User: Fold this.
Amino acid sequence: MTTAILQLPAWLGAILAMLIAIAASAIPFVLLRRLFSEELPTKTRDVAETVAVRIGTVHGLILALVFAEAQSTHTNLQQEVSKEITAIEHIVLELNQWNGPVKDTLRSQLADYVSAVLQNEWRSAAHPRGSREARQAYNALDMGILDLKAETPQQQSLRARMIMNMDELQDHRKARLSLAHRGLPSLFWWMALTGFAIIVGFFLVFPANPVHIAILSVYGAYTGLALYFILALSHPYAGPAAIDTSPYEIMLEDELKGS
Assistant:
């Protein structure tokens, strides 16, 4: 269900998440109030309101902190993708300036690396350490650059810069893989859903009139929307918050295969 809802258009997924939360809050409220129709004492309702407000405050704080953490991780992942693309661009530029017989071989190995990232690493089922194909392509390119024979000062400078950019590429790749697989712990979802259920339960001290049902529905809808956005941010491979991979594709088609 969690991944299926992310496959829907963003507006439809958000509406569905809100409807599910409304149903999970308003329907039990109406049914249980019909079973327990007697009115509770005013003092009991006052105590329930006080406890509900305190739990609701803690619950809202937890959602806000987790949302901020998911947003921060998502932003950092976008930055690491941009840095990885920049490192690849620098290597491509330096290979284009290299005059030697192995130039085309190195470009082909770099193209293999980018292809492996797109085909094997940019999906939710990818291994946290990355794909074997991407590691092999990177290692082959790295060894090829290290084995370059720099015969002129220009080649020596280019070789040194390519080695430095390869190290940066490896660092950004590792950071990308780490951030992309930094999912939310299941404990958060238990706390979020349990807090939601507790707050809904406290509404049972009030009569099931249209105003109370509407207020509970609004609370359920907003909570469902918040959980949907947190879920989307924690899944960078698919859904409305998926990281754009077109820079890899453009680099592969225009810079590595197109010239």
User: Anything to note?
Assistant: The chain has a mean pLDDT of 90. The two ends are 44 Å apart (CA to CA).
